[in-house]
Design goal:
Helix content: 55-70%
Number of helices: 6
Radius of gyration: 39 Å
Oligomer: single chain
Mean pLDDT: 75
Structural class: mainly alpha
Shape: elongated
Distance between the termini: 83 Å
Low-confidence stretches: 121-129, 136-143
Strand content: under 5%
Number of strands: 0
């Protein structure tokens, strides 16, 4: 056996959890290896010191405090989840509306032969003039439909 394998089994050796052959091999190695003997002595001392420590008793109201804390978290968590869900829905909705408007604007500009920047920059106000959907921006005028486009 080498030092690495002996040191990895020292705790089991000191607790007398090893079988006969392994126990004899570790004893034989420690009889010739001063480093492993020192490691075993240090671990034996540590185990005896830790064995003398008393475990502290938990406070009597610990279960009640834990239960109250868990219930508080349980009722607070859904409120945060609803807020986050509403914000995410609003963000996704705004992005999809923007994407739809950009695609429609590109289609109108392409149909009329103008570039998108020319179409957008043609008026000082988004509600003035024909706008990307036709008409005056207030529903007075033509409506964008598939019939307005010629097939390629």
């Amino acid at each position: 056996m080498n030092c690495k394998s002996v040191q990895s089994r020292l705790s089991a050796y000191l607790d007398r959890e090893l079988g006969g052959d392994e126990l004899l091999q570790i004893r034989a190695h420690m009889s010739v290896c001063r480093e492993c003997r020192c490691e075993a002595d240090g671990l034996r001392t540590l185990k005896s010191l830790l064995g003398g420590i008393q475990c502290p008793e938990p406070p009597e109201d610990l279960a009640q405090r834990l239960t109250a804390n868990m219930l508080r978290q349980r009722y607070d968590e859904p409120r945060r989840t609803v807020r986050v869900s509403a914000l995410m829905f609003a963000g996704v909705t705004a992005c999809s509306m923007l994407a739809t408007l950009l695609v429609l604007n590109y289609g109108v500009a392409r149909h009329s032969g103008e570039s998108t920047t020319q179409k957008i920059g043609a008026s000082s106000s988004p509600m003035a003039g024909d706008g990307p959907f036709g008409g005056d921006g207030f529903g007075n005028g033509s409506i964008l439909s598939a019939a307005n486009f010629e097939p390629r």
